[in-house]
Amino acid sequence: MQSLFFFVSKMDDEYRTLEKPAEGIYREKGSRFLAFGFPASDEETAREIIAGIKKEHHHARHHCYAYRMGPEAEIFRMNDDGEPSGTAGKPIYGTLLSSGLNNVLVVVARYFGGVLLGRNRLANAYKTAAQEMLSGASIVTQYVENTCHITFPYSQMNDVMRVMKEANITPVNPTYGNTVSFYVRIRRGWLSEFFKKLEHIDGLSFETVEHIP
């Protein structure tokens, strides 16, 4: 739930993605193209999913895929897995671009039907399979988040926790002593406003980090 603490919503930190895995199928000249979509925000996760699809559908001749991910959708890859260059990964990726989705992996497993399709029909088959998957998928809006590390004297606990409560943010991995520290995840568009609410607290330090240890 979004907090009323932040009265301005920054559109540039929003993106649309799959809420959960989705599937679709397209048939052409005896070949079956099974499309699988997954939410995936890092390449390691994508590799694990692709390996799982290959294991589950080991009788499929090709396992072609595309993904885009990252805060600015700057991470992307296309793979034809033995199909003629540009006839599989590229049309799958094009479908992702057209949909505007981010942090998404699409894998299309092709069961060959014995008839060669030609480049145009083949590219259309992979594109259509991906579109069929997306047509039945549940799409949600999510937000790019920053991870922050906050440290402050224990004497300032009440002031800090008041800000946390107003912002509807739950501290992660807190440690307590004379000095208190914890991590928070916060929507990127709210980061500046959040910092302004904390900067007046004596002894508090606030830094963004890549991830929570």
List descriptors.
213 residues; alpha+beta; Ribosomal Protein S5, domain 2; Alpha-Beta Plaits; 2 domains; 5-stranded antiparallel beta sheet; 4-stranded antiparallel beta sheet; 11 strands; 29% helix
Written overview of the protein:
- This protein is α+β, with helices and mostly antiparallel strands and 213 residues long.
- The chain folds into two domains: 20-137, Impact, N-terminal domain (Ribosomal Protein S5, domain 2), CATH 3.30.230; 144-209, Alpha-Beta Plaits.
- Helices cover 29% and strands 35% of the residues.
- The chain has five helices and eleven strands.
- Strands 2-3-6-4-5 form a five-stranded antiparallel beta sheet, sandwiched between helices. Strands 9-10-8-11 form a four-stranded antiparallel beta sheet, covered by helices on one side.
- Helix 2 (89-99) runs parallel beside helix 3 (119-135).
- The longest helix is centred in the middle third of the chain and has 17 residues, at 119-135.
- It is elongated.
- The two termini are 25 Å apart.
- The mean pLDDT is 91.
What is the helix tally? 5
Query: So, the CATH homologous superfamily of the largest domain?
Result: Impact, N-terminal domain
Using the alpha-carbon principal axes, give the shape: elongated
CATH C-level label of the largest domain: Alpha Beta
Summed over residues and divided by their number, the pLDDT gives a mean of: 91
Query: How many separate domains?
Result: 2
Map the helices and strands.
Layout: E1 14-18, E2 22-28, E3 31-39, H1 43-56, E4 62-69, E5 75-79, H2 89-99, E6 104-111, H3 119-135, E7 139-143, E8 145-153, H4 157-167, E9 172-175, E10 179-187, H5 191-198, E11 205-209
Helix pairs in contact: 2-3
